[in-house]
Amino acid sequence: MQSVRIAGVGSTAFGVYPGRTGRDLFAEAVRVAIADSGVPRTDIDRLCYGNFVGTVAERQGHQGPLMAEAAGMNGPATRYESACASGGVALRGGVEAVRAGTADVVLVGGMERMNNLSTDQVTAGLAMAADDLYERRAGVTFPGAYALMARAYLDEFGGSREDLAAVAVKNHDHALDNDYAQFQQEITVTDVIDAPTVADPLGLYDACPLTDGASAVVLVSERYAERHNVNAPIAIAGSGQGTDTLALQDRSSFVRTPATERAASDAYADADITPDAVDLLEVHDCFTIAEVLALEGLGLYDTGTALTAAAEGETTADGELPVNLSGGLKAKGHPVGATGVSQVVELSKLLRGDHVNSDAVDDASVAVAHNAGGTVASAVVHVLEVTQ
C-alpha cells in the first residue's frame, strides 16, 4: 500500500463573491495548489471534487468534468456529495486511490458559492442535508437542530452561554491575521451574548457565515515523490469515515456524535496512534456547540467535559491543544464543499511552518482534520503527520 503525501495546497480567500463563478473560484485554488506542489499538471491522474448545493446555487450538475476543465486536466473526475462533509469525503476518495495504486497523483478539491442567493434560498438549500420527511417539512433548519443539541448538552451536563461564547471568541482571535479568513474581526464574550438570538440558546455569533470559496490539495504517492524529487513532508497517515441516522429524532442521544466516534476510531487505528498523540486540530465548528461535540467525539475529552475547554484556554493558540488555528468555520468561513479540503490546507501549512499561526505549534508533528455533514450524520477524520 502506497503512503499518501501532500505535495501542494491552495485556497482562495473565503468571503463573499457573488460576481464570480464556481469554476473561476476552483481554478484559482487549483493554480495555487499546483504551483505549491511543483507537480506538472499533466501528471494529474484524477480529480476528486466536493460540492453540495451547486445544483441549486449555480443550477449546475455534472460538475466533475466541468471542474476538471477549470483545473486544466482531462483525467477521470468525480463529484463527491455528503452535505458539509463533501470535501472530506472527496479527500478520502483521493487517499484511497493513491493507497490502492490506481493513481500516483490526485487533485482533490472543493468549492461552494452561496452568496449569489438570498438567505432564504441558501437556508432551503442547506436544509436538504436534513431529513425531508421528518425534519425539513416540519420547518427544522440547522440553527434549530444545533440549538436542540446545545440545549440537551447544557441540560445534561451544565455549563453556560459564556462557555459556548468562548468558542466563538477563540476562533475569531485565531483568524485575526489569517488573510484567507472571511472575518478578521475580534469579538468578546459580551458581543456573543448580546447578539441577536438565532435559535435559543444560539445567537448570531454562535453560527458560521455563508461563504464562497474553494480549496485544493495535490496528493502524491511516496513512490512518485521519490522518483520526481517532490518535496512532500506531510503524510495523510490515517483516514476514517462514519455515519449516523439522518434525523435527530432517530438518535438515542443528542449529546454524542457516533459518526465522529467511528470515523476517529478508524482514522487513529489506520495511523497507528491514540488521541494522546494529536498536537492540533481543525474541527467542524459550524456552530459553537459543534466544536464541543467534535472534541468529545474525537476522544480528546470525555463526554460532557469539553464545553469549558475554550474558556479555560486549553484549545487556544497558546493552549495545550490548539483547535481551529485557521479561525475555523466560525471565522474563516464555511464554503460547504470546500471546507473539508480547506482544513487540510490549513493544517499542512501549520505543520510545514508557513502558516501565519505556525509559531503557536512549531514543534507539532500530528494533526487531525474533522469534517461533518448535517447534524453529524456524516463525519470524516484524517490524521496528518510530519515525515521529515
Describe the overall structure.
Residues 240-385 form the Thiolase C-terminal domain. GO terms for molecular function: acyltransferase activity, transferring groups other than amino-acyl groups. It comes from Halogranum rubrum. By secondary structure, the protein is α/β, with parallel strands linked by helices. The protein has a single domain (4-118, 209-386), classed as Thiolase/Chalcone synthase (Peroxisomal Thiolase, Chain A, domain 1, 3-Layer(aba) Sandwich). 36% of the residues lie in helices and 18% in strands. It is built from 13 helices and eleven strands. It has helices spanning 22-37, 54-57, 63-71, 86-100, 119-126, 142-157, 161-175, 189-194, 222-227, 258-271, 288-297, 328-331, 336-352, and strands at 4-11, 46-50, 77-80, 105-112, 197-199, 202-203, 213-221, 234-243, 280-282, 366-373, 378-386. The strands form two sheets. The chain has a nine-stranded mixed β-sheet with strand order 3-2-4-7-1-8-11-10-9, with helices on both faces. The chain has a two-stranded antiparallel ribbon with strand order 5-6. A hairpin with a 2-residue loop joins β5 and β6 (202-203). The protein is globular and about 55 Å long.
Summarize the structure.
The protein has helices at 22-37, 54-57, 63-71, 86-100, 119-126, 142-157, 161-175, 189-194, 222-227, 258-271, 288-297, 328-331, 336-352, and strands spanning 4-11, 46-50, 77-80, 105-112, 197-199, 202-203, 213-221, 234-243, 280-282, 366-373, 378-386.
